[in-house]
Amino acid sequence: MLVVKVGGSEGIDYAAVCDDVQSLVESGQRMVLVHGGSHLTNEVATALGHPPRFITSPSGYTSRLTDKRTIEIFEMVYCGQMNKSLVEMLQARGVNAIGLSGMDGRLWEGPRKKAVRAIENGRKRVIRDNYTGKVENVNTQLLNTLLDSGYLPVLTPPAISFDGEAINVDGDRASGATAVAMQADTLIILSNVPGVLKNFPDEASLIQNIAVNDIDEVAEQHAEGRMKIKLLGAKEALQGGVQRVILGDARGGSPIMHAVNGQGTVIE
Ligand code: ADP
């Protein structure tokens, strides 16, 4: 079982990702695709007059401030254009993709964090109008039913809270939770960088291997912003039994194949 997460930052070659998914599915690989949509969401939110706001938690993790309007825009982009264009590209390649959000069939369920502590503009605040949370349960029965029937699940946030509200969850951690629940041996997280860079943004400084016990140290010393959360997702996946997590580059051809062959940052 393979879980592939493709990010939503600028520069990602989704057609190349879909080409690889096609080859893998044709070769009989059981897999799930998870995607992001951050860059397009920022553009659409700005165009709609509700520009994105990001907060940093006291422990240094950056996340999107998600009020009700942001959830609506998030659904337009993630569940709408991003999800459906991936489904279309896969269908054009003969892959019977089915696009679902984490809310559909309670695929990704977890608690909503009602109050979030954050540092905004250097000041500590408690934010309550925030629809975010964390995936605790993955509906593996639904995923296995789809896989057994020959569909390729294409999954996207939001998830569903225990009270039935849409909650923004981190796509990297959600794909980690999915890999654990589905007992995947490999989780591939593709983004617009070659992997974890020792001196971001110097792409020649790629860290090729990280031992699971060194993840925290690497995250602390080298990762900023969103890369920290990717490493947290990788750690959670490995602690949950996934054998290897590869952080790879999705800006060029054969991104999944390259990652499978160990190009990028391999964590095991
Ligand atoms: P995606 O939306 O594709 O999942 P993110 O924007 O969430 O991607 O995360 C990838 C980003 O992490 C990179 O574009 C880069 O700006 C940032 N980053 C921070 N520190 C590092 C690092 N040490 N190595 C690589 N990328 C890093």
What report would you give on this structure?
This protein is an alpha/beta fold and 268 residues long. The protein has one domain (2-267): Acetylglutamate kinase-like (Carbamate kinase, 3-Layer(aba) Sandwich). Helix content is 36%, strand content 25%. It has eight helices and 15 strands. It has helices spanning 14-26, 38-47, 68-92, 140-148, 171-181, 215-222, 225-239, 255-260, and strands at 2-6, 31-35, 54-56, 62-64, 97-102, 108-110, 116-120, 123-127, 137-138, 152-161, 166-167, 186-191, 209-210, 244-249, 265-267. Strands 1, 2, 5, 6, 9, 10, 11, 12, 13, 14 and 15 form an eleven-stranded mixed β-sheet that branches. It has a two-stranded antiparallel sheet with strand order 3-4. A two-stranded antiparallel ribbon has the order 7-8. A hairpin with a 4-residue loop joins β10 (152-161) and β11. α5 (171-181) packs parallel to α7 (225-239). The longest helix has 25 residues, at 68-92. It is globular and about 50 Å long. The two termini are 16 Å apart. The relative contact order is 0.17. The mean pLDDT is 96.
